[in-house]
């Protein structure tokens, strides 16, 4: 489903991604963990071209681009393959929950409003918001706003969903409800890449876990091996600090 080769990105002299190679199968859930500043979120933003990488090949489904040579049409095609769930929701504050979900269907996919609203309502029910169709983001809890964001991502039927630390901005009381929604989506064999600092969640939901540090992939394995028998001293150090509550490494 997703193949990334030699993906590079730097800001000034700061190398953020140093030749990343990743392959994700259809229906696979990939979790990416690592310390702050390791390049995890930048990798996701480069994958859907919110950030333009400096170098590398990206293939998602049947669309393949060389980021150095890609044109506007190729960029648009690649962006259409994924949907992003952001750390800080990124909802339209002047639109209801339903309007936030249907906006891309009506504007980008030229869908009739009634059809878009039927899809939007169905998805909001799926994420547990059947009573919040017409509420604005300011009246919703953080957990509810993030679930609107997930419904919005599902609406466009992407080939893969990218989650950028979907619970990091939430109060602790709302974290479990959002994680449960993501687990439910994973059960549907949706291809997902999840950048997260929730280690237990990554262990439960992911088929594979990547540990990143300093712009590189240090180690990858199935969750059981990664969390119980990490091979790299760098991974061991990170997981030990997580275990003692030193989250920022």
UniProtKB/TrEMBL annotation:
<keyword id="KW-0547">Nucleotide-binding</keyword>
<dbReference type="GO" id="GO:0016887">
    <property type="term" value="F:ATP hydrolysis activity"/>
</dbReference>
<dbReference type="InterPro" id="IPR017871">
    <property type="entry name" value="ABC_transporter-like_CS"/>
</dbReference>
<keyword id="KW-1003">Cell membrane</keyword>
<keyword id="KW-0067">ATP-binding</keyword>
<protein>
    <submittedName>
        <fullName>Amino acid ABC transporter ATP-binding protein (PAAT family)</fullName>
    </submittedName>
</protein>
<dbReference type="InterPro" id="IPR003593">
    <property type="entry name" value="AAA+_ATPase"/>
</dbReference>
<keyword id="KW-0813">Transport</keyword>
<dbReference type="GO" id="GO:0005524">
    <property type="term" value="F:ATP binding"/>
</dbReference>
<dbReference type="GO" id="GO:0005886">
    <property type="term" value="C:plasma membrane"/>
</dbReference>
<dbReference type="GO" id="GO:0015424">
    <property type="term" value="F:ABC-type amino acid transporter activity"/>
</dbReference>
<feature type="domain" description="ABC transporter">
    <location>
        <begin position="2"/>
        <end position="239"/>
    </location>
</feature>
<feature type="compositionally biased region" description="Polar residues">
    <location>
        <begin position="223"/>
        <end position="239"/>
    </location>
</feature>
<keyword id="KW-0472">Membrane</keyword>
<dbReference type="InterPro" id="IPR050086">
    <property type="entry name" value="MetN_ABC_transporter-like"/>
</dbReference>
<feature type="region of interest" description="Disordered">
    <location>
        <begin position="223"/>
        <end position="249"/>
    </location>
</feature>
<dbReference type="InterPro" id="IPR003439">
    <property type="entry name" value="ABC_transporter-like_ATP-bd"/>
</dbReference>
<dbReference type="InterPro" id="IPR027417">
    <property type="entry name" value="P-loop_NTPase"/>
</dbReference>
<dbReference type="InterPro" id="IPR030679">
    <property type="entry name" value="ABC_ATPase_HisP-typ"/>
</dbReference>
<dbReference type="Pfam" id="PF00005">
    <property type="entry name" value="ABC_tran"/>
</dbReference>
């Amino acid at each position: 489903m997703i193949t990334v080769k030699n993906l590079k990105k730097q800001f000034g002299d700061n190398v953020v991604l140093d030749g990343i190679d990743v392959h994700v199968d259809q229906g696979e859930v990939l979790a990416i963990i690592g310390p702050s500043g390791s390049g995890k979120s930048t990798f996701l933003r480069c994958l859907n071209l919110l950030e333009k990488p400096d170098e590398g090949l990206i293939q998602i489904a049947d669309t393949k681009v060389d980021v150095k040579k890609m044109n506007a049409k190729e960029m648009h095609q690649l962006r259409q393959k994924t949907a992003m769930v952001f750390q800080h929701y990124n909802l339209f504050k002047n639109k209801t929950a339903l309007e936030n979900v249907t906006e891309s269907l009506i504007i980008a996919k030229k869908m009739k409003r009634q059809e878009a609203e039927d899809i939007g309502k169905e998805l909001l029910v799926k994420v547990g918001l059947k009573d919040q169709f017409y509420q604005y983001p300011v009246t919703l809890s953080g957990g509810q706003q993030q679930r609107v964001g997930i419904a919005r991502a599902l609406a466009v039927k992407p080939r893969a969903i990218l989650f950028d630390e979907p619970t990091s901005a939430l109060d602790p009381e709302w974290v479990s409800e959002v994680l449960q929604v993501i687990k439910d989506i994973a059960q549907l064999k949706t291809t997902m890449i999840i950048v997260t600092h929730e280690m237990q969640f990554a262990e439960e939901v992911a088929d594979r876990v990547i540990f990143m540090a300093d712009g590189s992939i240090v180690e990858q394995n199935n969750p059981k091996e990664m969390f119980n028998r990490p091979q790299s001293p760098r991974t061991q150090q990170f997981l030990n600090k997580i275990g003692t509550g030193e989250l920022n490494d």
